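Late entry, written up from scratch paper. The run itself happened at the end of the previous shift, but nothing got recorded in the book at the time, so transcribing now.
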Amino acid sequence: MGLLFVASAIAPERIVAKNAPALAQETAAGAYIVLSNTLFVALAGLFPGNALKYVAVIMPVAGLVTTTGYAIQSWFHRSEGGVGARWWIRRVTTAFFLVSQLIAGVALWRQGVNDDTVANVIVWSFAFYAIGLTRAWELLGAHDQGFAETFLLWRGQRAAKAQGKVGKDNADPEHASSSDVQ
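Output as recorded:
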């Protein structure tokens, strides 16, 4: 969560100001939701007894409600320009992880606290932590360096090589001369 607050402190006009771009606000909200989920699940795991089983159900439900609210708000903000594949991928991925954590939390509730049920909850917390870090990193300016963007860039370069279109125009570092690299 510290990285998220650093990003907000470095460029508040780009992230948290009223006139900040909707995408940046959505990214910050998404990061906050998944990082707070991870934090509360981790803290509940430190308490002896049954605290984890309550938090493992409450946090994904709260995350689903909040994510749905942000998605509806975002949909209306973007209705003129439409939403792209990235918008859908983020929403579906986050919802899938939240529902999966909720299922793990319900199993924890029904079967009791044991190694398997706790491990299932922890796995989803790791996934949320990875999502949160990625989104916070994007807010710091690395928005084109996520997994999907890297994969698509690699795939595009591979296709360009297959078609023989790689060279100076495509900024392929393998074919750049020393004067092209700065």
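Residues 51-77 form the longest helix (27 residues).
(Scratch paper discarded after transcription.)
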